[in-house]
Amino acid sequence: MKTLKCVVVGCGDHANRFIYPALHTMAGIELAAVCARTSAHAEENRRRHGVERAYTDFREMFRQEKPDAAVIVGPPQLHYEAGLACVEAGIPFFIEKPLGADYAQARELTAAAAAAGVPGQVGFMMRHSAVGQQIRFHAVQEQLVCGTVRYFTSGPYRSDEIYGMPGRSDADFLRRYLMVQAVHPVNLAASLLGEIVEVTPQVTFHGENIIVNITLRDTAGRRMNAVLHTLVAPGYGNLQFKTELFFASRAMLFTDAFHSLDFYSGEATEAASCRHWQFAPFGSQLVQMGYGPELEYFFDSIRTGRREPGLTTLEDGLNTMLILDEVIRIFSLTE
Question: I need a labelling partner for 188 at 20 to 30 A (CA). Which of 26, 50, 128, 308 fits?
Fold first, then answer.
């Protein structure tokens, strides 16, 4: 296996909880340098992760290190700026969602990478999670009719001091929530459809909280709903994540968070069965939630030059950003 020299831009909470631990489990990866906004933070993370060099300027890091790959984890604006710097330097890159602070930035980054022939991947870990791979396996085998992804969370999305996305209006709150958190279930729902031709949102503000229902329809008439709710709170939490899919064969699929899946065949006989899948309790949380597999997929694609079309590519992320942009546009017309 070829060893890949990797650098990381970002040393925040998400990176330290999930991305660095996943990188440390991987064979064939040399973690050469880290970059943070301040020298103190960069040095702290250099020592924490046993890395030789630390930087405060990602462009300088790219020039000095000449890595095989870069991993970018931070606010949306950083994803866009560091992603463009990777394109300019010809470095394959993995960026956390979203691709930028808005659809325009995401489109520019995607177009630049395509023109330069630089591969990029977006961190939609739900698609790479153990249960996400099970969903995909059954969706390929069956003909989907409709379904729902339910995703209820908590977080400080009313604050305009996070993510580098200012603004205190309801529209600003909606934009932050959609781009930073709800982008995950929307991406999962969209991945189960073909070309999407209709986006129908319903947005309800309930005190400090927000409830969003997004219905997606593709050219074949199949529909997926993303039912989203966030409880405004100081801390982050995934309160509920469930998927329900219904197929033309009358088969049904139900998931419970990242833990388990039940698949009911469409046979209306006494012999009809339910197939139950459950993630082993001794398994790695990084694998269960998809952080390990998504990075493994990224590095394997660099080594082999092969990428599965649509699987959390920049184009896939851009299509999701377009859906969210349409939700925000329609909401703005009702204010």
Answer: 26
